[in-house]
Specification:
It contains 13 helices and 15 strands. The protein is α/β, with parallel strands linked by helices. Helix 6 packs across helix 7. The radius of gyration is 22 Å and the shape is globular.
Length: 357
């Protein structure tokens, strides 16, 4: 949980500090006021990147050399400080509890975060990479063995792709393919178990947000699992050598969602896709609360205003079940009055980069 957030030279926020509530925090302001930048700063402190751009220079305030973020967290009844600075050269300085850290994955572990925003339906309409990242986020937070195994698979894939570009026959790849297959199969077991466990929660929430449909979710490992992966890698050697990279494997995994047996992107409207993404994010937050000592922080960027009163009520109740700290941006607080009554709510006004409680 965030107890204090300080933001310096981040977009149009020159020097800002907020002391958020443990429940709901509503950031009110006109478009361009800086309210979404507060969410973006929190996102940086959790994942080490923006959800709006991959260019650091666009995030640093004009005329400044770097942005600096500082937060005070409570984790397992302990206070932990986080500090993150990024400059225009792309250099990052990260401090956790006053000590220099070098892995951004440490941030993700300390501050589990879910983002719900108007463009979030890309999770369903875009390529498998986003859905794979969605699954991996969930496994990362509940299975300690996952992250080292994920790193090992990435290294083995990199090694295999390098060998593909150098080899004229399969022999140099045989050892690496055996290693890759064993690690990939173990990784896929974690992913598949998580997807199976998440599905009942997702279906429950969908009954409240999208009762007109019955949803199914299947996990695709990245290869046809009727055959051993090392055998498939050997059989596909010539194809992969021509491509210059490995065409099958855990880096091609996907979570495939259907409504009434039809891919959701082919059946649901844009508004319904947004609700489904909302259900997916809520299901992850609830699963995390039920299966670990962690709670998930939610960022909701101007999305709640698109929901009708009944769906806003469902959203509020499910967020309460997650025991979540929530940050919501809005132009007008009127549509959110009922949600505010459900929570310990703190209201902030954002105007021209200045934040007042």
């Amino acid at each position: 949980m965030l107890h204090k957030l300080q933001i310096q030279h981040f977009r149009n926020l020159s020097q800002s500090e907020i002391i958020p509530a443990g429940g709901m925090n509503l950031l009110l302001g006109q478009n361009g006021s800086g309210k979404s930048s507060v969410l973006e700063a929190i996102h940086y402190l959790s994942l080490g990147r923006s959800f709006r751009t991959h260019l650091t220079n666009r995030v640093i305030m004009q005329g400044e050399k770097a942005f600096t973020l500082f937060a005070q967290l409570e984790r397992d009844e302990q206070q932990i400080s986080l500090g993150l600075q990024k400059d225009r050269h792309g250099d990052t300085q990260l401090k956790i509890a006053g000590k220099t850290a070098d892995k951004l994955s440490q941030l993700a572990s300390l501050l589990p975060l879910q983002l719900i925003h108007p463009e979030g339906y890309n999770l369903l309409t875009g390529g498998p990479q986003q859905r794979r990242a969605f699954v991996d986020w969930g496994v990362f937070h509940v299975e300690q063995a996952f992250f080292p195994l994920w790193g090992k698979v990435r290294r083995l894939l990199k090694q295999r792709n390098a060998l593909l570009r150098q080899s004229v026959n399969y022999a140099p790849l045989a050892y690496w393919d055996q290693q890759l297959a064993e690690s990939s199969e173990a990784l896929s077991v974690f992913r598949q178990q998580y997807c199976l466990a998440l599905l009942p929660l997702l279906q429950q929430i969908c009954q409240e947000l999208l009762p007109e449909y019955t949803f199914q979710a299947t996990f695709y490992a990245g290869w046809q699992q009727e055959s051993a992966l090392n055998q498939l890698l050997q059989e596909g050697f010539e194809r992969d050598r021509q491509l210059g990279h490995t065409a099958i494997g855990p880096h091609r995994a996907d979570l495939r969602l259907r409504a009434e047996g039809v891919p959701v992107q082919d059946l649901l409207s844009r508004g319904q896709l947004k609700l489904l993404v909302c259900a997916l994010r809520l299901a992850q937050g609830l699963y995390l609360r039920q299966h670990s000592a962690k709670t998930c922080l939610f960022l909701i960027d101007d999305f709640a205003s698109e929901l009708d009163a009944q769906k806003r009520y469902v959203l509020a109740k499910r967020l309460q079940q997650c025991e979540s700290q929530v940050f919501i941006t809005a132009i007008d607080q009127q549509p959110l009055q009922e949600m505010m009554q459900e929570f310990d709510c703190r209201l902030f006004h954002v105007k021209q980069g200045n934040i007042t409680e």
